[in-house]
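Reviewers of the previous submission asked for a worked example of the structure-prediction workflow described in the proposal, so we include one complete record here. The input consisted solely of the amino acid sequence. No template or homolog information was supplied to the procedure at any stage.
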Amino acid sequence: MDLAEIFRVMCRRWYVLVPGLLLTAGLTVGAWLFVPTSYESQSTVALLNSRKGAAADGNPFLSMEPSLTGMADSLARNVNSDASVADLKAKGLTEKYEAKIADNAQGPLLWLTVTGDDPDAVLRANKTLMAYTAERLKELQADQKVEPDSMIRLTTIVPPQDPEAKLKSKVQYLVMAAGLGFVLSLVATFFVEARRRHAAQAKRAEPVGDVEPPAPVRPAVPAEPAEAAEPAGPVQPAAYEPAGPVQPAAYEPVHAQPVDQPVDQPTVQLPVQPADGRRPAKRPPSWVK
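From that input alone, the workflow returned the following structure tokens.
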């Protein structure tokens, strides 16, 4: 089936295709209205060297040691743990969040990201997450009996940004709804077309009028050879009585020849001729004894 035939079928079965497309449009609009829009807010923090470690030059950004990056990774893992999720939920943070090392970062930089449906709640949750991250950093060092002047510090590089709408997931739902509705409309259209064609072919194949179907032809059975009928008893030859005296036929006697000489001619037996006007008697069959 080429494109021209597909277009002709769609035009011929428009009463099936058009309602399907309208239903698809309704599904698309419903997905746009009822699927919530996701908002995202992000902030960036950095780990700085302790006051005692930065006392040499007085600038903590000039003394970022590689150990700070390891500490940043440990802090991100702790903030993402189940215990931290429970603590933040108790503080009112119910949105989805994530703490990780910034992409292509050349220092101990952390990204704090919060995602939710309410932009105001997302912004508040990001601020709460920043405060909780600084608190967890102090607690981790206090557990190791680190002096306050030797503790690693946390500073804000990028404050919580205004939430931005993330339409990627919403567009995906819209594309799925539109594609599903269009495919179902085409399937329904070609299904109706196939049923119509099948019904038309069956109608053309029906006989016109009351015509009896031909009787089935039975295969010919070869006839068995008839057996010869045996007579119930001995057959007597038909009796024949001549109407008058039988006259012997005239014949010439054959002269006897000497025994020692061979016979030149075979002996011929002459039949007895019946009288004039009489039918000869029927000879019995050869099989009658």
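DSSP finds six helices and five strands in the chain. We consider this example representative of the routine output the project will generate in years two and three.
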